[in-house]
Amino acid sequence: MPERDAALGTWIKRFLMEHLPTERNLAVNTRKSYRDSLTLLLPFVARRCGRAVERLKVEDLSVDRVTAFLAHLEQERGCSVQTRNQRLAAIRSFARYVLMRDAGLVEWASGIRAIPLKKAVRTRIAWLSAESMDAMIAGPDRKTAAGRVEHACLLFLYNAGARASEAAGLRVEDLHLPERTGENARATIHGKGGKIRVIPIWASTAKALAALSRDRPPGCGAVFWSRHRKAYTRHGIIELVERAAARVPELDGQRITPHVIRHSCACHLLRSGVDINTIRAWLGHVSLETTNIYVEIDMKAKEEAMKSTCPGDTGEEPRWKAKGGLLEQLKAI
């Protein structure tokens, strides 16, 4: 247990290296997000205190300085409200960790944990039509090695509704690509929080992935390699999608990301008649509430629902045009 006068850095190192992986068993990406939040916070607080990062104490991390740091993220770094809240969640988790180990810091920890999250306005969900998605997939030059990788990656992202990190983490051993016809090809996806899901894949996707897998040397499990013969990173997948979108004239001026393809996958599944709970499992959502956004944004589904519930012309005079005084009209309701 850290001493009461231990440096802030000592608390943070034990929080990141012992508490998060051992006691909470958080996923690697979540731990990295917490680490990045605190790494950004420390220099900011040090500048406000006028001392080196190594000499900061817990009490230097005051409510006013954390609040100023959150404002700095939005106003100077251009971060979204969601990012601001994500950083605050990491700081509040750290304060809770300190509180559990030093009751003398209860007032400090309570102040930090009382800093409220800011309400975020839900941004408009962007998704592509089937025609635009097909144009993106058809764009790469499959006569080249790089083009074959881009084509296979776009197919996989669309087929599986995968996140960029999930595509980057896809390994050869995660693929089941039977050579005999009649068997279903599938991919095992390692999602957020260590959750695993298995997705059936199209014959075209399986064929493209099988071609990439055959080219991999022993010991390299990554499916998607860059032209430098290194495994694609999450940012590499994002850049790959941006290159593919730039080839489609209809998408000029739009920012197309792997998440837009993920949204497109969900919307197209919904339009094909796939039930919402299956889509939830397909995308790896924990809550059905998260998946319900696709029902809300699909105008075609809303129009069909409106048509199915629109009353026909019965020939009856609408109630609001009924004759008589107000009392008679009210009685007729």
Report the helical percentage: 55-70%
Number of strands: 3
N- and C-termini, Cα separation:
71 Å
The Cα radius of gyration reads 26 Å
Beta-strand percentage range: under 5%
How would a crystallographer describe the biggest sheet?
3 strands, antiparallel
pLDDT < 50 stretches: none
In spatial order, strands of the major sheet run 1-2-3
Overall mean confidence score, pLDDT: 85
Tell me the CATH topology of the largest domain. hpI Integrase, Chain A
Task: Determine the CATH superfamily of the largest domain.
Answer: Intergrase catalytic core
Secondary-structure-based class equals mainly alpha
| CATH class (first level) name of the largest domain | Mainly Alpha
CATH architecture descriptor name of the largest domain:
Orthogonal Bundle
What is the overall number of helices? Answer: 16
Into how many domains do the coordinates divide?
A: 2
Q: SSE order, as H and E?
A: HHHHHHHHEEEHHHHHHHH
Q: How would you describe the shape?
A: globular
Name a few traits of the molecule:
globular, 2 domains, 16 helices, 3 strands, single chain, 333 residues, DNA polymerase, domain 1, mainly alpha, three-stranded antiparallel sheet
